Amino acid sequence: MTRDGYLAGVMVAGVAMMYHCLAVNFERNDSGLPIEGLRRLLMTSTIYAIVIQLVFMLVWPLAVDTKTFGEPLAAVYLSDPYGFVVTALFVVTAFFWQSLSLVGLSSRKTLGLILGFVYLFAIAGLTTWQGVVNFSAPADQANLDLWLILSVLGVALQPVAGILVKRNIERHRLDPF
Fold first, then answer.
1. 2-11, 80-89, 121-130, 136-145 — which one is most confidently predicted on average?
2. Which residues, at least 6 apart from 78, have a Cβ–Cβ distance to it below 8 Å?
3. Taking a C-beta distance cutoff of 8 angstroms, is the pair 158, 46 a contact?
4. Of residues 71 and 123, which shows the higher confidence score?
5. Cβ-count burial of 161 within 10 angstroms (0-12 exposed, 13-18 middle, 19+ buried)?
6. Of 32-36, 37-41, 52-56, where does the model show the most confidence?
7. Rounded to an integer, what distance in angstroms lies between the CA atom of residue 131 and that of residue 97?
8. Of 32-41, 79-88, 143-152, which has the strongest mean pLDDT?
9. Tally of CA atoms within 13 A in the half-sphere of 4 that contains its CB
10. Do residues 33 and 133 make contact, with C-beta atoms less than 8 angstroms apart?
11. Measuring CA to CA, how many Å separate 96 from each of 3, 28, 61, 91?
12. pLDDT digits (tens, 9 = 90+) for 18-38
């Protein structure tokens, strides 16, 4: 898609990972997440983060020197809407699949926290690798199909993650140690 595909792939995965690490407060018994409305909060905040990420990607050329990074992403997306759809689906997949790590990160047990971080870093590594591949090559039907399926699965698993995170928080409130 663009000559700055490596940077774009790494940034999408990194922003998605930071978003989910910063959502949890490890010093609080409730992990800093509310019990009431948690599923709706996770869904809407993830969607807002995705929209902000996509807008940032569209205005990226305004912040950098185009001589260094080549053709701006906005120019590519305007001339190739198919590429924008593939990219948007990739961003949705990265954010929603990394949000599943909150199940482990909201746990108070050492094993749960370790599994949450291992999952988060594994998905971040996979999305970094696939982001570099995705942003460095032209969009094709196979990429569209892959990211469509993975994004739908990620969105479908988000309410399940919300239920499990809520269960973890309720356990913390009953037994704070």
1. 121-130
2. none
3. yes
4. 123
5. buried
6. 52-56
7. 14
8. 143-152
9. 19
10. no
11. 26, 24, 26, 9
12. 776 776 666 666 666 666 777
From the list 161, 89, 69, the residue with the least C-alpha distance to 130 is 89
Any long-range contacts for 148-153 (C-beta under 8 Å, 24+ apart)?
148/89, 150/89, 150/93, 150/97, 151/89, 151/92, 151/93, 151/96
Amino acid at 89: L
Query: Tokens representing 9?
Result: 């792939």
State the pLDDT confidence band at 1, using cuts at 50, 70 and 90.
very low
Per the document, the length of the chain is 177
> Where does residue 26 rank: exposed (0-12), middle (13-18), buried (19+ CB within 10 A)?
exposed
Residue 170 token pair: 């309720």
Q: How far, CA to CA in Å, does 101 sit from each of 1, 112, 169?
A: 30, 10, 14
pLDDT value of residue 164: 86
C-alpha to C-alpha distance for 103 and 168, rounded to whole angstroms = 8
